[in-house]
Amino acid sequence: MPYFRTQDGCSLYYETVGFEFARPAVIFLNGTLQTTMYWKVIAAALKPGFRSLLYDARGQGESELGPLPLSLDLHLDDLLALIRHLELGPVCLVGLSHGALLGYAMARRMPKAVSRLVMCAIGVRASPRARLVVRSWLKIIESGGLEAMVSAATPHVFGEAYLARNRKILDRIAKTIVRRNRASSVAAHLSAMTAYPSLSSMLGKLDMPLLVMSGADDPLVSTEGAAAVAEKSGGRHLLVKGAGHSIPVETPEWFLKTILQFLSDRWSDMPEAI
User: Fold this and answer.
1) Tens-digit pLDDT profile for the chain (274 aa)?
2) In the chain, which end has fewer C-beta atoms inside a 10 angstrom radius, N or C?
3) Are the beta carbons of 100 and 34 closer than 8 angstroms?
4) 138 to each of 127, 176, 198, 233, 246, how far by Cα in Å?
5) Alpha carbons 34 and 98: distance in angstroms, whole number
């Protein structure tokens, strides 16, 4: 299993798919409780036309938390160092939630390093309820542990349709998430997020194609907030009906088809909503 060691000595786990071919590179950026496992099926499906890089950011999955305090800038430094280590040219970034924020920040900091950007489940102007939900996760993990936090988060990170379809295996899904994460690292991640610059403060016209997706049944991201990100950045917004916060896993076939269209210059053919 390949690891990359940062300048401060933090070991980051990553996987490559299709790197034996000279094709455009796509980097997948995890959400808060995700690991490289989340993207493997999608990366395999993209292999005929793209190289894929999957990695666990500091504190996620197989990566170490490292000695430095977590911050958005530190995550950006890690991503840029990994891109340079693998000698990648301009890359396509696909991020969910926290990963979407990281992708946007990278596009602002190093626009020439990013050829296209896909952002899922992110927006501005979060509701008071959404803010309280996310803040409660840190308190829950500190008082009750990771298993309690994942249990509390599950109804908020999946849409109603997905929860209904998978009601018999929700406990197994939760246990898998717990097994792939560490309580101390997730707590450090959630704590660091409280000091991140707001997405609103970053918004501006981007120099590369941008696609923003939001789930119609996402209690954490409003349709208006996601659409505002696309509008102010010169991108496109797609509303995914019947999906919650975890769009790629809730609508896998549609998600794969959509990013293939976007990454392959056929994104003008996509509908406004599905």
Assistant:
1) 699 999 999 999 999 999 988 899 999 999 999 999 999 999 999 999 999 999 999 999 999 999 999 999 999 999 999 999 999 989 999 999 999 999 999 999 999 999 999 999 999 998 999 999 999 999 999 999 999 999 999 999 999 999 999 999 999 999 999 999 999 999 999 999 999 999 999 999 999 999 999 999 999 999 999 999 999 999 999 999 999 999 999 999 999 999 999 998 755 444 444 3
2) N
3) no
4) 18, 20, 18, 31, 20
5) 10
Of 92, 73, 74, 94, the residue nearest 12 (C-alpha): 74
Whether the pTM exceeds 0.90: the reply is: yes
Structure token pair of residue 127: 């509701």
Burial class (CB within 10 angstroms; exposed 0-12, middle 13-18, buried 19+) of 22:
exposed
Q: What is 136-183 written as a DSSP string?
A: HHHHHHHHH-HHHHHHHHHHHHS-HHHHHHTGGGHHHHHHHHHHTS-H
- CA–CA separation, 192 and 141 (whole Å): 14
Q: Measured on CA atoms in the order 134, 140, 146, 152, is the torsion positive or negative?
A: negative
- 3-126+197-269 is classed CATH 3.40.50.1820: yes
Q: Distance of CA 81 to CAs 42, 44, 99, 254, Å? A: 24, 24, 16, 32
Q: Pairing between strand 91-96 and 210-215?
A: unpaired
**Is residue 215 within 8 Å of residue 243, measured between CB atoms?**
yes
CB 95 within 8 A of CB 120: yes
Q: Domain ranges in the chain?
A: 3-126+197-269
